[in-house]
Amino acid sequence: MSNIVAIVGRPNVGKSTLFNRLTESRKAIVDETSGVTRDRQYGHSDWNGKKFSIIDTGGYVVGGDDAFETEIRKQVQLAIEEADVILFLVDTREGLTPMDEDVAEMLRRCKKKVLLVANKVDTPTLTNDITEFYQLGLGDPYPIAGISGSGTGDLLDAVVEDFDSGEEESSDLPRITVVGRPNVGKSSFINTITGQERNIVTPIAGTTRDSIYTHYNMFGFDFNFVDTAGLRKKQKVSEDLEFYSVMRSIRAIENSDVCILMLDASQGIEQQDLNIFSLIQRNNKGVVIVVNKWDLIEKGTNTHKEFEAMIRERISPFEDVPIIFTSVINKQRIFKVLETAKQVYEARTRRISTSELNDTILPIVKEQNPPPSVKGKWIKIKYVTQLPTAYPQFVFFCNLPQYIRDPYRRFVENRMREMWDFHGVPISIYFRAK
Q1: What secondary structure does DSSP assign to 270-327, as a single string?
Q2: What is the distance, to the nearest Å, from the Cα of residue 347 to the centroid of all Cα atoms in its chain?
Q3: What is the pTM (predicted TM-score) of this model?
């Protein structure tokens, strides 16, 4: 299962520096989405073969001192609710502050694993200065220097100590999750689909939190719903801020194969929706966009085509996504959503034989539309194969891969999408030297 590590603390203690250190410099980063929301940072890392996601809660706070404290409290509360491990960062050079004590008081009451991290211990003499942080009552501080990486090895050992290095639940069933902003109709959709009958719920044990999967086997469908309780319960944190909804979505997205991104027709597609769409895309999950509450749109104001064109323009360049207009309350096109999600899953898991790939795509890239020459050099593509990964990735072997430009890469991707119907599925194409 996906484990989440959140970095919390007051401004300017080095949260983003530590985030960069734990993702980029480990060279294990799968994706770092800078600017998922308001310069929010979300990345993947691994240590000793144990993978986890890192969320940097820094840089979000704006306004005066009062706003600082209010926002930090919200961030810490959210980290307590959503993360598996919380890294509480303090600044050794500045020493203990009242705001640090405030945060520590909240963390002492929580049942999550909290590691106290004393940052900016750049010289051995500063090691003695971390003793004052013992009074926070959060155990031994881990002395580190985020900039140089000193001390981060011991910290990471402690972070991953209880993480499971095993693979995800072994199940051949598709894993589908419904994500989106609050109040767009996610709960109604799930209740309408699952609530009609009572013979469907067989929870499969998941992570240390709630059970993650609910088995759905009705009307010819057989898949696991990824538990979206974390997105549905408001609990104590106000969800009106972008960051909170996105953080809520991360675990559900990472544990799924296909995401149903639900929008509110009366509000259109907002920045927060785009942030969640970006997370889905960057995690290489299948996606179906569902425009709910279409019954509330007055006839004549907006047609399906206009609305769809507007959405595709906003989600560009990844526009090859199914868009379905529904009214959950009127039960309109609900099963069309499930059918489409199933098709997207099948496309995401499609394996194309090497012989079929070479017979079909090579004539296009070798003869009909070869890559344009660069500096008088001609690029010759010799061979293509699909990688054995969870989503479609293809390698084209050629003589001069460094001269392949993005427009040509997009051309090849679009042709492959047409030929093998990768509708709603992010695909990756690489050019390598033979």
Answers
A1: -HHHHHHHHHHHHTT-EEEEEEE-GGGSPTTT--HHHHHHHHHHHHTT-----EEE-B
A2: 20
A3: 0.72
How far apart (Å, rounded) are the C-alpha atoms in residues 426 and 229? Answer: 26
The letter for the amino acid at 177 is: T
* Beta-strand relationship, 50-56 and 41-47: antiparallel
- Picking from 55, 62, 25, the residue whose alpha carbon sits closest to that of residue 41 is 55
Indicate the Cα dihedral angle 7, 9, 15, 16, nearest 10°.
Answer: 90
Query: Looking at the predicted structure, is the pLDDT value of residue 373 above 80?
Result: yes
**Separation CA 413–CA 428 (nearest Å):** 8
Give the whole-angstrom CA distance, residue 59 versus residue 71.
11
What type of residue sits at position 33?
T
CA–CA gap between residue 116 and residue 276 (Å, rounded): 30
211-240 pLDDT tens trace: 356 778 887 888 888 755 444 444 444 444
CB 248 within 8 A of CB 81: no
Please check the confidence at residue 300 and state whether its pLDDT lies above 80.
no
E strand or H helix that includes residue 258: strand 258-264
Cα angle 417-34-20, degrees, rounded to a multiple of 5: 120
Question: 327 is written with which tokens?
Answer: 């009214």
Q: With both helix axes pointing from N to C terminus, report the angle between 242-254 and 65-82 in degrees, rounded to the nearest 10.
A: 20
Closest CA to 149 of 117, 195, 103: 117
Please name the residue ranges forming H helices in 316-392: 334-348, 354-363
Residue 116 CA to residue 135 CA, distance in Å, equals 11
Altogether, the residues listed in the chain come to a count of 434
- Look at residue 219 in the predicted model and tell me its pLDDT: 78
Is residue 154 within 8 Å of 127, Cβ to Cβ? no
> Residue 358 and residue 170: Cα distance in Å, rounded?
32
- 382-396 pLDDT tens trace: 999 999 999 999 999
Q: Please give the Cα distance from 269 to 286 (Å, whole number).
A: 19
Measured at the alpha carbon of residue 77, what is the angle toward residues 73 and 79, in degrees to the nearest 5? 120
Burial 404-418 (b: 16+ CB within 10 A, else e): beeebbeebbebbbe
Q: What is the pLDDT of residue 246?
A: 67
